Amino acid sequence: MPTPRTRCYRDGSLVDEDFPLAEVSEHLALSGAVVWVDLADPGEEDLVSLAGELGLHELAVEDALTLRQRPKLDRYPDHLFLSAYSAEFGVATAQVTTHEIAVFITDRALVTVHTEGFDLEAVVARWDSASDLARNGVAFLLHGLLDHLVDGYFDAVEALDEQVEELEDQLFLPGTKQEAVQRASFELRKSLVTIRRVILPMREVVNTLLRRDLHLLRDEMGPYFQDVYDHVLRVMEWTESLRDQATAILEANLAIQGNRLNVITKKVTGYAAIIAVPTAITGFYGQNVPYPGFAQPLGYYSSAALIVGLSALLYVLFKRNDWI
After folding, report:
1. Fewer CB atoms < 10 Å away: N or C end of the chain?
2. Which helix (H) or strand (E) holds 40?
3. Mind listing the pLDDT tens digit for each residue in 165-192?
4. What is the pLDDT of residue 296?
């Protein structure tokens, strides 16, 4: 099991990190101290022990251990419980990969619980790059985490946008395999549905965090959380737009296939009409009764001339009307 990560901020400065879980209470006893604890794939014993020290609700602990929740923000008497997902689009696989993270938010502590695939180093780097905001305590830590998640949504949706544009360019190229375009459009729609399922509930989550009655945000952090909320709205609108584009690509691909089938049917019908001319003439001259030119070279030459002449005439007429 991975070693838990810990940090302690005091009066806006990082004073200690990577201390044992047993010392969390000691650090919280310090005046003005804020503690971050990270657990990757934790055992039930460690999380329950930490929950006892911080007074975390048993239902929230159960949700953190299962890690199969929808994005949400639950409110308990002494703390908040946040469930969210990171999202990443793999160009090679053309699929969106998500990783869940559970967050316990108290007045002076932030506890994160996640699987091994979650990139927490980027969050720590974001905290270190904005250390001047650390005096805002838990709100500072929570903002850095949410900002990282939403930026990941932007990167994933931007990559999906590029895939949609590339698919649109391929749609009308000559020689494009329509089956490949159709499969790619289905994969894009599947990825967009996945990321939409992650992004859509985050609007309500961040909007709830902006409420004053939670007593979480200080005046200085309010605009930062509002900025995160605006980004969530933008990326959600972008996702909806891409869904419409992916649907339009699929419909356009089906329309193109229908048009090509009509063109093929038209051309086949035109050639069938041309072939009907020699069939009719040879059928007439193949009768077993005497007729003008019967059993004479004149009959052969006249039938051949009719076949060539009428077939050429039909070909010219059909070609001029763009039927073949």
Report:
1. N
2. strand 33-40
3. 888 888 777 766 777 777 888 888 888 8
4. 73
What is the extent of the structural domain holding 53? 5-257
Q: Examine the domain organization and report whether 248 and 278 are in the same domain.
A: no
The reported pLDDT for the residue numbered 287 is 66
Instruction: Determine if residue 215 is left, alpha or beta; phi over 0 gives left, psi from -120 to 50 gives alpha, anything else beta.
Output: left
Report residue 1's pLDDT band, with 50, 70 and 90 as the boundaries: low
The pLDDT value given to residue 291: 65
CA angle 147/153/157 to nearest 5° reads 150
pTM of the model: 0.79
**Measured between alpha carbons, how far is 182 from 7 in angstroms, rounded to an integer?**
50
Bridge partners, 21 (sequence order): none
Chain mean position to CA 60:
28
Name every residue whose Cβ is closer than 8 Å to that of residue 137 and which is 6 or more positions away in sequence: 9, 34, 108, 218
Rg of the chain over Cα atoms, rounded to whole angstroms, equals 35
Question: CA-to-CA distance for 205 and 240, rounded, in angstroms?
Answer: 19
Place of tokens 């193949």: 286
* Together in a domain, 243 and 299: no
Q: DSSP H helical segments within the chain, as ranges? A: 24-28, 44-54, 58-66, 121-129, 138-171, 178-209, 222-285, 297-320
Give 73: exposed, middle or buried? Use CB within 10 Å, 0-12, 13-18, 19+. Answer: buried
The full 3-state SS of 96-117, as one line of letters, equals EEEEEEEEEECCCEEEEEECCC
- Are 136 and 47 part of one and the same domain? yes
* Same-domain pairing of 30 and 142: yes
